[in-house]
Amino acid sequence: MADTTPNGPQGAGAVQFMMTNKLDTAMWLSRLFTVYCSALFVLPLLGLHEAASFYQRALLANALTSALRLHQRLPHFQLSRAFLAQALLEDSCHYLLYSLIFVNSYPVTMSIFPVLLFSLLHAATYTKKVLDARGSNSLPLLRSVLDKLSANQQNILKFIACNEIFLMPATVFMLFSGQGSLLQPFIYYRFLTLRYSSRRNPYCRLWCPKTVIIVTPKSMITDHHDRYSNNENI
Q: How far apart, in whole angstroms, are the C-alpha atoms of residue 124 and residue 201?
């Protein structure tokens, strides 16, 4: 006997899920828009002039997403040092600051990659939830792409951490080349210290020592090791 249980339209569950989680849905849409604008900046299909405007749009959309996420994490705003200290512990606050650092600066491809990749990862996670609400077997091809993206999440996070670290000397270079502001390297250094102490994402903290080893000449490392060994023998 055929199953006559009224399941309704296949997409009704997904719509209901998104309406129930309005703030998450708003962040999902802003992240998709961030991915779209970032992609059109990295691949300037509409011309170089348009690419610069897409750069700003991507960072503004990321700032909106970060502000919404920060509001979700800390819904009760207070004008106090304690609230500010709590906000600075949140990754969303870090990337709100990140967006504000670069939104009016000269477009740099390195600065868009963290925005693009984080938005892509978070959008993929929420897209899977929407697909689950739509039906466990819906859109298998899209699910396969999302699963591959999730499988490479750690590698993507490591790449983002390395990108953020190497962006520090890039801001100094931009300053001396006349494409950056005097305050930008100092503010970005503050951002980097916040990422180093992040409670949710340890990759910047893990990769900072490795980066120092990579960029330090081998002779300096050997000399430091010899001095340390001599001090141990005294």
A: 18
